[in-house]
Amino acid sequence: MSEFFQFVPDDIHAIIGENFSFPANADSIIKAPPASASVVENLPVITIEEKGKECIICLKEFEVGSKGMQMPCKHTYHTECILHWLSKTNSCPLCREELPTDDQFYEEYRKMKKREAQRKEMLKDLHNSMFT
């Protein structure tokens, strides 16, 4: 569990309400936890079929016929490289797409962040519809 959330009760919405928004610098304060072990275990292992591809983590070229692990975003890495990476954080090293975690408080933070972004987009659309 993230140190930041160790004292946050289970029902965070009962205390802060549904319309709570995190401060602008929350991403620099809240450290992403490791990816969920069950999600990592189920990442597909693929066979590298073309020459010239490299693992963006170790910067070594894949050998044709070798195995690599593919993220949901379709980026591929050496299995040992991505397993080590995902034991530290939950995102793709290249595009930063996040995988689920086992940290319930971080998952709640992600949901709240997503809702906040959706509200901002809805307000932008509403504003734009008034002037078109």
TrEMBL record:
Tree of life domain: Eukaryota
PROSITE patterns: ZF_RING_2
Residues covered by the RING-type domain: 55-96
Transmembrane stretches, start-end: none
One Pfam family of this chain: zf-RING_2
InterPro entries: Znf_RING (IPR001841), Znf_RING/FYVE/PHD (IPR013083)
Pathway this chain belongs to: Protein modification; protein ubiquitination
Zinc keyword on record: yes
Catalytic activity, as annotated: S-ubiquitinyl-[E2 ubiquitin-conjugating enzyme]-L-cysteine + [acceptor protein]-L-lysine = [E2 ubiquitin-conjugating enzyme]-L-cysteine + N(6)-ubiquitinyl-[acceptor protein]-L-lysine
Keywords, alphabetical: Metal-binding, Transferase, Ubl conjugation pathway, Zinc, Zinc-finger
EC class: transferase
EC number assigned by the record: 2.3.2.27
Keyword Zinc-finger: yes
Sections of the chain in a coiled coil: none
UniProt family annotation: Belongs to the RNF181 family.
Known function: E3 ubiquitin-protein ligase which accepts ubiquitin from an E2 ubiquitin-conjugating enzyme in the form of a thioester and then directly transfers the ubiquitin to targeted substrates. Catalyzes monoubiquitination of 26S proteasome subunit PSMC2/RPT1.
Protein name as it appears in the record: E3 ubiquitin-protein ligase RNF181
Organism: Nicrophorus vespilloides
